[in-house]
Write a structure and sequence with these properties.
By secondary structure, the chain is mostly beta strands. Helices cover 0% and strands 51% of the residues. It has no helices and 11 strands. Strands 2, 4, 5, 6, 9, 10 and 11 form a 7-stranded mixed beta sheet that branches. The model has no long low-confidence stretch (mean pLDDT 96).
Length: 127
């Protein structure tokens, strides 16, 4: 049973930064790509960032490119999302999830390509 636990969310002023963490257990973490998604009230869940199983490849949504950085520490079975220059449009519940396919060569960016979702962590950016 894979378990993902997000942490690091909170309330921050526009222009501020937060670092989200997602700790994984229950499966060989280093074999799977990891992704961050977010869902704002009344909106569909959307892709934010993803990292390959090796950590060498990353992908970002255009809306966060240049402001957010995804990374992973396979020794700690943890994936991170560093979020800088936050703005109110970033307000959402942020979820991490695990790629359905192990050792994928590319970076998966579709919601349906992920499973084992965490419970989410709220990020609120005030103007």
């Amino acid at each position: 049973q894979v378990q993902l636990v997000e942490s690091g969310g909170g309330l921050v002023q526009a222009g501020g930064s937060l670092r989200l963490s997602c700790a994984a257990s229950g499966r060989t973490f280093s074999n799977y790509g990891m992704g961050w998604f977010r869902q704002a009230p009344g909106k569909v869940r959307e892709f934010v960032a993803a990292v390959s199983w090796s950590g060498r490849k990353t992908a970002y949504a255009d809306s966060v490119k240049g402001r957010f950085t995804i990374s992973r520490d396979n020794a700690k079975s943890t994936v991170y999302l560093q979020m800088n220059s936050l703005n109110p449009e970033d307000t959402a519940v942020y979820y991490c999830a695990e790629d359905r396919r192990s050792l994928r060569m590319a970076v998966a960016t579709g919601v349906n390509e992920y499973e084992n979702w965490g419970q989410g962590t709220q990020v609120t950016v005030s103007s």
